[in-house]
Specification:
5-stranded parallel sheet, Oxidized Rhodanese, domain 1, alpha/beta, 9 helices, globular
Protein backbone atom coordinates (compact mmCIF):
# COMPACT_ATOMS: atom_id res chain seq x y z
CA UNK A 1 0.00 0.00 0.00
CA UNK A 2 2.61 2.50 -1.15
CA UNK A 3 0.29 5.48 -1.43
CA UNK A 4 -1.24 8.21 0.72
CA UNK A 5 -4.72 7.49 -0.69
CA UNK A 6 -6.76 4.38 -1.37
CA UNK A 7 -10.12 4.37 -3.10
CA UNK A 8 -13.38 2.69 -2.16
CA UNK A 9 -12.88 -0.16 -4.64
CA UNK A 10 -9.55 -0.97 -3.01
CA UNK A 11 -11.18 -1.19 0.40
CA UNK A 12 -13.98 -3.44 -0.87
CA UNK A 13 -11.35 -5.76 -2.36
CA UNK A 14 -9.14 -5.82 0.74
CA UNK A 15 -11.69 -5.64 3.56
CA UNK A 16 -10.89 -9.22 4.68
CA UNK A 17 -7.10 -8.79 4.73
CA UNK A 18 -6.04 -9.94 8.24
CA UNK A 19 -3.39 -7.18 8.37
CA UNK A 20 -5.86 -4.43 7.46
CA UNK A 21 -6.78 -1.96 10.21
CA UNK A 22 -9.50 0.57 9.43
CA UNK A 23 -9.52 3.62 11.67
CA UNK A 24 -12.42 6.01 12.15
CA UNK A 25 -10.74 9.36 12.80
CA UNK A 26 -13.97 11.36 12.96
CA UNK A 27 -13.87 14.44 15.18
CA UNK A 28 -16.32 15.15 17.98
CA UNK A 29 -16.72 18.71 16.67
CA UNK A 30 -15.09 21.01 14.12
CA UNK A 31 -14.37 24.71 13.67
CA UNK A 32 -15.31 24.64 9.98
CA UNK A 33 -19.03 24.24 10.77
CA UNK A 34 -19.17 21.06 8.71
CA UNK A 35 -22.20 18.84 9.35
CA UNK A 36 -22.05 15.08 9.90
CA UNK A 37 -24.32 13.27 7.45
CA UNK A 38 -24.16 9.82 9.05
CA UNK A 39 -23.68 10.05 12.82
CA UNK A 40 -23.44 7.03 15.08
CA UNK A 41 -22.14 4.52 12.54
CA UNK A 42 -18.77 3.37 11.28
CA UNK A 43 -17.41 1.13 8.53
CA UNK A 44 -17.77 -2.45 9.69
CA UNK A 45 -14.76 -3.48 11.77
CA UNK A 46 -13.36 0.05 12.02
CA UNK A 47 -11.61 1.10 15.21
CA UNK A 48 -12.09 4.48 16.83
CA UNK A 49 -9.10 6.83 16.59
CA UNK A 50 -9.84 9.68 18.97
CA UNK A 51 -7.65 12.56 17.85
CA UNK A 52 -8.84 14.99 20.50
CA UNK A 53 -8.92 12.94 23.68
CA UNK A 54 -6.36 10.21 23.06
CA UNK A 55 -3.99 10.96 20.19
CA UNK A 56 -3.05 14.49 21.22
CA UNK A 57 -1.03 15.97 24.06
CA UNK A 58 -3.51 16.16 26.93
CA UNK A 59 -1.16 18.35 28.98
CA UNK A 60 -0.94 21.12 26.39
CA UNK A 61 -3.16 24.18 26.59
CA UNK A 62 -3.25 24.20 22.79
CA UNK A 63 -5.58 21.91 20.79
CA UNK A 64 -4.48 18.84 18.82
CA UNK A 65 -0.80 18.98 19.74
CA UNK A 66 1.24 15.88 18.86
CA UNK A 67 1.48 13.38 21.73
CA UNK A 68 4.79 11.89 22.82
CA UNK A 69 6.06 8.84 20.99
CA UNK A 70 5.55 6.81 24.18
CA UNK A 71 1.89 7.81 24.47
CA UNK A 72 1.28 7.25 20.76
CA UNK A 73 2.85 3.80 21.02
CA UNK A 74 0.79 2.84 24.06
CA UNK A 75 -2.52 4.02 22.61
CA UNK A 76 -1.90 2.38 19.23
CA UNK A 77 -1.12 -0.91 20.96
CA UNK A 78 -4.39 -0.62 22.90
CA UNK A 79 -6.36 -0.62 19.65
CA UNK A 80 -4.41 -3.57 18.28
CA UNK A 81 -2.11 -1.87 15.81
CA UNK A 82 0.93 -3.90 14.80
CA UNK A 83 4.16 -3.08 12.99
CA UNK A 84 2.82 -4.88 9.89
CA UNK A 85 -0.65 -3.32 9.98
CA UNK A 86 -2.01 -1.85 6.76
CA UNK A 87 -3.82 1.20 8.08
CA UNK A 88 -6.67 2.95 6.25
CA UNK A 89 -8.17 6.04 7.86
CA UNK A 90 -11.42 7.87 7.13
CA UNK A 91 -13.70 10.37 8.86
CA UNK A 92 -17.41 11.17 8.73
CA UNK A 93 -16.80 14.68 7.38
CA UNK A 94 -15.60 13.26 4.05
CA UNK A 95 -11.99 14.50 4.28
CA UNK A 96 -11.34 16.64 7.33
CA UNK A 97 -9.56 14.96 10.24
CA UNK A 98 -8.37 11.74 8.58
CA UNK A 99 -5.30 13.41 7.02
CA UNK A 100 -4.25 14.50 10.52
CA UNK A 101 -4.34 10.89 11.68
CA UNK A 102 -2.44 9.86 8.52
CA UNK A 103 0.24 12.46 9.22
CA UNK A 104 0.62 11.32 12.84
CA UNK A 105 1.36 7.79 11.70
CA UNK A 106 3.83 9.07 9.10
CA UNK A 107 5.83 11.13 11.61
CA UNK A 108 5.70 8.23 14.05
CA UNK A 109 7.43 5.99 11.53
CA UNK A 110 4.56 3.91 10.14
CA UNK A 111 4.75 3.98 6.34
CA UNK A 112 1.91 1.61 5.46
CA UNK A 113 -0.92 4.08 6.03
CA UNK A 114 -3.42 5.79 3.75
CA UNK A 115 -6.57 7.93 3.80
CA UNK A 116 -9.76 6.53 2.29
CA UNK A 117 -10.60 8.78 -0.64
CA UNK A 118 -14.35 9.29 -0.55
CA UNK A 119 -14.70 8.44 3.12
CA UNK A 120 -17.79 7.14 4.84
CA UNK A 121 -20.24 8.78 2.43
CA UNK A 122 -18.85 7.01 -0.62
CA UNK A 123 -18.54 3.74 1.30
CA UNK A 124 -22.26 3.92 2.02
CA UNK A 125 -23.03 4.89 -1.57
CA UNK A 126 -21.33 1.69 -2.76
CA UNK A 127 -23.28 -0.53 -0.34
CA UNK A 128 -20.37 -0.88 2.04
CA UNK A 129 -21.27 -2.53 5.32
CA UNK A 130 -21.46 -0.42 8.49
CA UNK A 131 -22.17 -0.97 12.18
CA UNK A 132 -23.20 1.08 15.19
CA UNK A 133 -20.42 2.76 17.13
CA UNK A 134 -19.92 0.79 20.34
CA UNK A 135 -17.11 0.15 22.80
CA UNK A 136 -14.33 -2.13 21.55
CA UNK A 137 -11.50 -4.20 22.97
CA UNK A 138 -8.53 -5.64 21.09
CA UNK A 139 -5.52 -7.84 21.62
CA UNK A 140 -2.50 -5.68 22.37
CA UNK A 141 -0.56 -4.70 19.26
CA UNK A 142 3.21 -4.53 18.82
CA UNK A 143 3.48 -1.15 17.06
CA UNK A 144 6.35 1.03 18.34
CA UNK A 145 6.64 4.67 17.27
CA UNK A 146 9.83 6.01 15.68
CA UNK A 147 9.27 9.75 15.95
CA UNK A 148 10.66 12.18 13.33
CA UNK A 149 10.90 15.56 15.14
CA UNK A 150 11.96 17.46 12.00
CA UNK A 151 8.39 17.05 10.75
CA UNK A 152 7.18 19.56 13.35
CA UNK A 153 8.06 23.26 13.50
CA UNK A 154 7.53 25.65 16.39
CA UNK A 155 6.79 29.35 16.65
CA UNK A 156 10.43 30.35 17.19
CA UNK A 157 11.46 28.57 14.01
CA UNK A 158 8.71 30.32 12.07
CA UNK A 159 9.64 33.65 13.62
CA UNK A 160 13.23 33.22 12.40
CA UNK A 161 11.94 32.14 9.01
CA UNK A 162 10.23 35.50 8.44
CA UNK A 163 13.68 37.00 7.88
CA UNK A 164 15.59 33.97 6.57
CA UNK A 165 12.84 32.92 4.13
CA UNK A 166 14.35 29.44 4.08
CA UNK A 167 10.91 27.82 4.01
CA UNK A 168 7.46 28.84 2.79
CA UNK A 169 4.55 28.74 5.21
CA UNK A 170 1.37 27.44 3.58
CA UNK A 171 -1.80 28.46 5.43
CA UNK A 172 -4.76 26.10 4.95
CA UNK A 173 -7.43 28.37 6.46
CA UNK A 174 -10.07 30.03 4.32
CA UNK A 175 -9.11 33.06 2.23
CA UNK A 176 -11.42 35.18 4.38
CA UNK A 177 -9.58 34.30 7.57
CA UNK A 178 -6.18 34.56 5.93
CA UNK A 179 -6.98 38.04 4.57
CA UNK A 180 -8.70 39.31 7.76
CA UNK A 181 -12.02 39.45 5.94
CA UNK A 182 -13.73 36.82 8.10
CA UNK A 183 -13.65 36.44 11.89
CA UNK A 184 -11.65 33.77 13.63
CA UNK A 185 -13.80 31.06 15.27
CA UNK A 186 -11.76 31.02 18.47
CA UNK A 187 -12.27 33.50 21.29
CA UNK A 188 -9.51 36.11 21.68
CA UNK A 189 -7.94 35.30 18.31
CA UNK A 190 -6.45 37.98 16.08
CA UNK A 191 -7.12 38.18 12.36
CA UNK A 192 -4.55 37.92 9.60
CA UNK A 193 -1.68 35.60 8.79
CA UNK A 194 1.99 34.92 9.41
CA UNK A 195 4.07 37.43 7.41
CA UNK A 196 5.39 35.89 4.21
CA UNK A 197 2.95 32.97 4.23
CA UNK A 198 0.73 31.97 1.32
CA UNK A 199 -2.82 30.67 1.31
CA UNK A 200 -3.97 27.29 -0.03
CA UNK A 201 -7.36 26.66 1.63
CA UNK A 202 -7.93 22.99 2.38
CA UNK A 203 -11.48 23.27 1.04
CA UNK A 204 -10.15 24.01 -2.46
CA UNK A 205 -8.39 20.66 -2.65
CA UNK A 206 -11.35 18.30 -2.34
CA UNK A 207 -14.74 17.87 -3.96
CA UNK A 208 -17.50 15.50 -2.90
CA UNK A 209 -15.34 13.88 -0.25
CA UNK A 210 -12.45 13.14 -2.60
CA UNK A 211 -9.18 14.88 -3.32
CA UNK A 212 -9.08 16.57 -6.69
CA UNK A 213 -7.18 14.69 -9.42
CA UNK A 214 -3.42 15.12 -9.22
CA UNK A 215 -3.44 17.28 -12.35
CA UNK A 216 -5.77 19.78 -10.69
CA UNK A 217 -3.81 19.72 -7.44
CA UNK A 218 -0.60 20.38 -9.34
CA UNK A 219 -2.12 23.46 -10.96
CA UNK A 220 -3.18 24.86 -7.58
CA UNK A 221 0.25 24.42 -6.02
CA UNK A 222 2.11 25.61 -9.13
CA UNK A 223 0.20 28.88 -8.92
CA UNK A 224 1.84 29.52 -5.54
CA UNK A 225 5.39 29.54 -7.00
CA UNK A 226 6.73 27.35 -4.21
CA UNK A 227 9.83 26.21 -6.08
CA UNK A 228 11.79 23.55 -4.23
CA UNK A 229 11.79 25.27 -0.84
CA UNK A 230 10.77 23.37 2.29
CA UNK A 231 7.09 23.89 3.09
CA UNK A 232 5.57 24.35 6.54
CA UNK A 233 1.80 23.94 6.78
CA UNK A 234 -0.42 25.83 9.19
CA UNK A 235 -4.14 26.29 9.88
CA UNK A 236 -6.27 27.06 12.93
CA UNK A 237 -5.16 24.19 15.16
CA UNK A 238 -3.01 21.83 13.09
CA UNK A 239 -5.96 19.80 11.79
CA UNK A 240 -6.89 20.96 8.28
CA UNK A 241 -3.29 21.92 7.55
CA UNK A 242 -2.80 18.18 7.18
CA UNK A 243 -5.39 18.08 4.38
CA UNK A 244 -3.30 20.58 2.43
CA UNK A 245 -0.08 18.82 3.43
CA UNK A 246 -1.37 15.47 2.18
CA UNK A 247 -2.49 17.04 -1.11
CA UNK A 248 0.96 18.57 -1.52
CA UNK A 249 2.60 15.22 -0.84
CA UNK A 250 0.75 13.78 -3.84
CA UNK A 251 2.20 16.23 -6.37
CA UNK A 252 5.30 17.90 -4.89
CA UNK A 253 8.81 16.76 -4.00
CA UNK A 254 9.41 19.50 -1.41
CA UNK A 255 10.23 18.71 2.21
CA UNK A 256 6.99 19.00 4.17
CA UNK A 257 6.49 19.88 7.83
CA UNK A 258 3.70 21.14 10.09
CA UNK A 259 3.49 24.11 12.43
CA UNK A 260 1.54 22.08 14.93
CA UNK A 261 0.31 24.91 17.18
CA UNK A 262 -0.77 26.93 14.13
CA UNK A 263 -3.03 29.97 14.56
CA UNK A 264 -4.18 28.80 18.00
CA UNK A 265 -0.76 29.93 19.20
CA UNK A 266 0.41 32.51 16.66
CA UNK A 267 -2.92 34.33 16.42
CA UNK A 268 -3.75 34.29 20.11
CA UNK A 269 -4.76 37.72 21.28
CA UNK A 270 -2.18 37.67 24.08
CA UNK A 271 0.67 36.60 21.79
CA UNK A 272 3.22 39.03 20.40
CA UNK A 273 4.01 37.29 17.14
CA UNK A 274 3.81 39.58 14.10
CA UNK A 275 0.63 39.41 12.03
CA UNK A 276 0.03 40.75 8.56
Amino acid sequence: MNTALVNIDWLHQNINDPDLVILDGSPVSNKANMKVKHPGIRIVGARQFDLKNTFSDQESNLPNMVPSAAVFTEECQKIGINANSKIVIYDNLEIYSSPRAWWLFKIMGHKNVAVLNGGLNEWLATDGMTEAITEQTFSKGDFVADFAPKSIKNANQLLANIDSKEAIVVDARSAGRFNSEAPEPRVNARSGHIPGSCNVPFSKLTKGGRFLPKEALKVIFDEMNLGNKPLVFSCGSGMTACVTLLAASLVLENDLALYDASWSEWGDGDAEFPVK
